[in-house]
TrEMBL record:
InterPro entries reported in the protein's UniProt record: HET
Protein name: Heterokaryon incompatibility domain-containing protein
Top-level taxon: Eukaryota
Region annotated Disordered, chain positions: 1-24
Residue ranges of domain Heterokaryon incompatibility in the record: 242-393
């Protein structure tokens, strides 16, 4: 594919030579065109905020992209064929295409002058030309390369013009989510799902919440295209389909329901007291033809602890009973709203040379809409998908209308659709689950990604996904996952009693949770000032946690065995709900216990530290050029900042499990989570819990981390093959109580 210059502008080879020579030129010779460009005026910025139609103008329309099958593609001869004078003229005329390249980049030429060729770079370190090239013939995407970074445009047929098969059947994204086009598509998806999807009908419960918002329109509205909504709070509503709202609070809620205003709200709720996100949700509810909406801030009496606990305990029923969930993915707070025009995603009209249907060698010129492709992370990390309370809402819903950066996505248990355009990626936390056949999704109606995964591995996935999200009030740690725990108990066999975020079934496996030290989630591991769970529960700490995940735990391929016994486990509840908050709890274990010495490095985020068995000398384990400490041990202290640096800390470790190192060590390194020092196929590995004694309570401990160990069984010990760590030296089988 070739980018064809127009009006005798500089050709590709000339620009390639300029770019190559620039790397050998002295830096002062480089002229930054941005310095000579006019600033964007307020009128231009205001216009940008209103217009979502694809941009075209006399400047960017000079570009013609050759997409003929017999044209050269993937080559570096498709540069922007514009001079500095051309670029400055385009930017003075507010050409959106060149403005987009200008943002976050520099427009550069070798020296100042109107006839100098132009290229684009993100930094001044390595000038690079913008190259266009084809990357996907099946679903046409137009790629570009800018300073060795790849980007993409997706090409669509221009609505109203004769379509070309090269651009596929999908219409371009609808950048106006608050439009009849968007609502008509949503109504179509909902009708099809309701009529034809057996899974969705079976998952959807017949449940009516205590209160709902009734949404109707004022009779004889002066503007039918913008109906005036009338909203009131209805208690004990009659059976009818209702929608729920999943959104970020982002602070205290204006207009929330209280004991004082609930009587007034039962007659009418003035829209001017409500935040924009809730108003937008009311608009969507009406737009898709529904009458009722459930919003926690308005349907729960916010200054009544009794009402809050009653409604929170029914959250799984509320979301499973809803006909539809409206997910305000793009809104960071309730004040933001989510129906605004997606002006920053407006496309560009490109001229494209395509193969002629009658075989003309020169082809024919068609127009196409080029839409920039957003990065996967840009879509996955929407505000809604970073909040802990919203985690369960996307999993327990039957149908979801999710409003992201580019517009609306509909998904249910059997289908996914978009409001035009290609589907936005809404999958997250992918890689670690390959070994257990599951990938977790932000929006997964019916929690289907974990449907075929057995307990306790499925719960490990949930814990990791849930704890990756932010929680404003730490005391809500167990409350915010209560609904999904209720659903998990219903669908999974052998889970047993729920104990502060863990299940009695295979509880020893779940005790081996550990801090996710390589997480890209911005969270600090800390122990809260107020008690909220026993130390053996992940809910006792703030942070992102993982549980040992490998299919071999269930299928026997790694010889996974429990090495200790769970003699007793219990918790003391705050209220009457066994899935809710706790004020105490303990477990009693019997197994091999060995004392260790641990020393903190003080090296920041990945401060694993090092150590050895109590009774050994540190000098025995400190060798030149190697990691200090016993190399058979891997340390994962929960909150390293609790401990002084370079001080010997005596702990006890109780052995919980053993297993064999899988043959595929690289794969195992991806999923076994916290043994960075590897192993070999005939090596035994183990996991244990690190404990410190509770002052004044003999035989009672609190958990402070986990530890991995390894070594060879007696018959395999030899030169440079050390014994399995728990088999060496002094260890006692004893009972311990952990609180």
């Amino acid at each position: 594919m070739v980018l064809v210059p127009v009006n005798n502008l500089p050709t590709g080879p000339g620009l390639n030579q300029a770019a190559a020579s620039s790397q050998s030129q002295a830096r002062p010779l480089i002229h930054v065109v941005n310095d000579a460009l006019p600033p964007m005026t307020d009128d231009q910025e205001d216009q940008d905020q209103k217009d979502v139609s694809p941009h075209t103008c006399r400047h960017c329309s000079k570009i013609t992209i050759d997409m003929r099958q017999n044209s050269k593609d993937g080559k570096d001869d498709g540069q922007i064929g514009f001079t500095e004078a051309d670029v400055i003229s385009a930017l003075k005329d507010n050409c959106a295409l060149f403005s987009a390249f200008r943002q976050g980049a520099y427009l550069v030429s070798m020296t100042s002058g109107p006839d100098n060729p132009i290229w684009v770079e993100r930094t001044l370190k390595q000038p690079a030309i913008v190259n266009f090239f084809e990357v996907d013939w099946e679903r046409l995407k137009l790629g570009y390369k800018m300073n060795n970074r790849l980007g993409e445009f997706v090409l669509y047929n221009v609505p109203g013009q004769k379509p070309h098969e090269l651009f596929g059947p999908q219409p371009p994204p609808n950048l106006l989510p608050n439009s009849e086009l968007s609502y008509s598509r949503a109504r179509k998806y909902l009708r099809d799902c309701s009529a034809n999807h057996t899974k969705c009908r079976e998952f959807n419960l017949s449940h009516m919440p205590t209160r709902l918002l009734e949404v109707v329109t004022r009779p004889n509205s002066p503007n039918p295209d913008e109906p005036h909504l009338i909203v009131r709070l209805v208690s004990n509503p009659p059976p009818a389909p209702y929608a729920t709202l999943s959104y970020c609070w982002g602070g205290d809620q204006p207009g929330k329901t209280t004991k004082r205003n609930i009587g007034t709200y039962s007659r009418n709720i003035p829209l001017d007291v409500l935040p924009l996100t809730i108003i937008d949700a009311l608009t969507v509810t009406h737009g898709v033809g529904m009458k009722y909406l459930w919003v926690d801030a308005l349907c729960i009496i916010q200054d009544s602890d009794r009402d809050k606990m009653n409604e929170i305990s029914n959250m799984h029923l509320i979301y499973r009973g809803a006909f539809l969930t409206v997910a305000a993915g793009v809104a960071s707070t309730s004040l933001d709203g989510f129906l605004r025009p997606r002006v920053h995603d407006r496309g560009y009209v490109f001229n494209v040379r395509v193969d002629s249907p009658v075989g003309k060698q020169e082809g024919e010129i068609r127009q196409a809409i080029a839409m920039p492709v957003r990065s996967r992370r840009d879509q996955e990390m929407l505000p809604l998908y970073t909040r802990a309370w919203t985690f369960q809402e996307g999993q327990l819903s039957t149908r979801v209308l999710a409003y992201g950066n580019r517009g609306m996505v509909f998904c249910c248990l059997e289908s996914r659709h978009t409001d035009g355009g290609l589907e936005e990626p809404i999958t997250t936390l992918r890689s670690i689950y390959d070994s257990i056949g599951a990938s977790f999704k932000n929006l997964d109606p019916g929690n289907q990604s974990l449907a075929g995964v057995r307990h306790p591995l499925a719960w490990g996935v949930i814990v990791e996904a849930y704890t990756s999200r932010e929680l404003t009030m730490g005391d809500d740690k167990l409350l915010a996952v209560m609904a999904i725990a209720e659903e998990y108990k219903r669908i999974k066999e052998g889970v047993g009693e729920y104990l502060a975020g863990l299940w009695r079934g295979d509880m020893l496996f779940q005790l081996l949770w550990a801090a996710h030290r390589v997480s890209d989630v911005k969270t600090k591991f800390k122990r809260p000032e107020r008690y909220r769970a026993p130390s053996w529960s992940w809910a006792s700490l703030d942070g992102h946690f993982r549980i040992f995940l490998h299919q071999g735990v269930l299928d026997g391929s790694i010889g996974y065995k429990y090495a200790c016994e769970l003699l007793h486990a219990e918790t003391t509840l705050v209220g009457g709900n066994p899935l809710g908050q706790v004020k105490g709890g303990f477990i009693r274990l019997r197994g091999r216990v060995k004392k260790v010495v641990w020393k903190r490095n003080g090296t920041g985020k990945h401060d694993h530290g090092y150590g050895w068995a109590l009774g050994d000398l540190e000098s025995d384990w400190v060798k030149s050029g190697e990691v200090p400490g016993d190399d058979r041990l891997s340390w994962y202290v929960d909150v390293p900042d609790e401990w002084p640096v370079k001080r010997d800390i005596v702990m006890s470790c109780i052995e919980v499990c053993t297993y064999e190192a899988p043959e595929n060590l690289m794969q195992f390194a991806m999923v076994q989570l916290y043994d960075e020092r590897g192993g070999s196929p005939n090596m035994t590995q183990g996991r244990g819990i690190l404990l410190v004694p509770v002052e004044g309570q003999p035989g009672t401990y609190r958990r402070v981390g986990t530890m991995g160990c390894k070594g060879y069984l007696e018959g395999d010990v030899g030169f440079e093959k050390k014994p399995y760590w728990f088999d060496e030296g002094h260890s006692m089988r004893q009972e311990v109580v952990v609180i």
